[in-house]
Amino acid sequence: MPLKSIRVLDLTRLLPGPYCTMLLADFGAEVVKVEDPKIGDYARHYDPKVDEDSAIFHSLNRNKKSVCLDLKLQKGKIDFLGMVEKADVVVESFRPGVMKRLGIDYEKLKRINPGLVYCAITGYGQTGPYATEPGHDINYLSYAGLLNLMGEKDGKPAVPATQIADIGGGALPAAVGILLALLEREKSGKGQFIDISMMDGVISWLQTVLPNYLSTNLSPKRGEQMLDGSRACYGVYETKDARWLSVGALEPKFWKMFCHGIGKSDFISLLEAPLHEQHRLKYEIQTIIYQKTLSEWLEVFSETEACVSPVLTFEEMVENPQVIAREMIQTVSHSTLGTMKQIGIPIKLSETPGEIRTEAPRLGEHTEKFQKTLKNCSTKANKGVNG
Fold this sequence. Notes:
CATH architecture of the largest domain: 3-Layer(aba) Sandwich
Helix content: 25-40%
Distance between the termini: 37 Å
Number of helices: 16
Order of helices and strands: EHEEEHEHEHHEHHEHHEEHHHEHHEEHH
Structural class: alpha/beta
CATH superfamily of the largest domain: Crotonobetainyl-coa:carnitine coa-transferase, domain 1
Strand content: 15-25%
Number of strands: 13
Largest sheet: 6 strands, parallel
Strand order of the largest sheet: 5-2-1-6-7-8
Number of domains: 2
């Protein structure tokens, strides 16, 4: 596997950090979760439980190991520094300053291991007036200006059902940053510090709206953007059986086929109509779509390239033939449950594919094994605590 020689010490909890290190673990990295002996990763305690831990914990922490260390104690620090000596990557998600107060910040760790790649995932980054402020996904979306653009034109901002900042703004840039730093280390032999801000990551996602503002100084408004549901060709319509049909007929060829499908060829010329006309179009299209059930509309568009899709529930999604073909829901073995279903691996490599090899670890499952390897911890690590 492409990362089989890479050891990652993962001090993160909950979602952004564990998602990042899950990607690395899926492709062979040895990811060691360094957890508090009493509580561990907070995500272990969520409901619903699967065996001892939560379903989300099992999903995010497959292919990993767990070692319990109390980093507030001298013994825990010494053991951690001993692990750092033989590590390639450290990932943490504490607020800036926490690792320094613990005495195990990057400046100290790189003296023990100059080749160490150190990634810090935080809400606002290591610098700036908000650096030490607390926050969650909704706060980062708010500051980035994205939340203000989400939702209906005359309604309040709509909170997304999944964590855009945590995963898209934090976990994914962190994984890319780690791989870039490891690639650079191959040439220079030196590690480096990776500063990931989830707010920064969300701002970088605004490629379809922010460049327009930066060029014109005209502020975008909710419900008036090309891809936010304001146009008739790109939206969601309710069917007769209270289901939903999504339409993404942005291009003229798709819009033409959609208009033919709903029996309104006179709408074809209105693809780029002004906003007030788009509102009328949406109302008329909704009236038409409401005349048939979802299955009936899917039959209408079954042989037509109009970018029309059903809005699926989870029950339907997991049985969808495309999802099955792409192995995005996998059944894997589990030591106590027999089998369990897991979200699959989205990155498909032709020669060295990722793999779900082991289940999520129990709290401290691998502590004893690692402590045996640390019995002869080097003088460098022992001195590092006070260095």
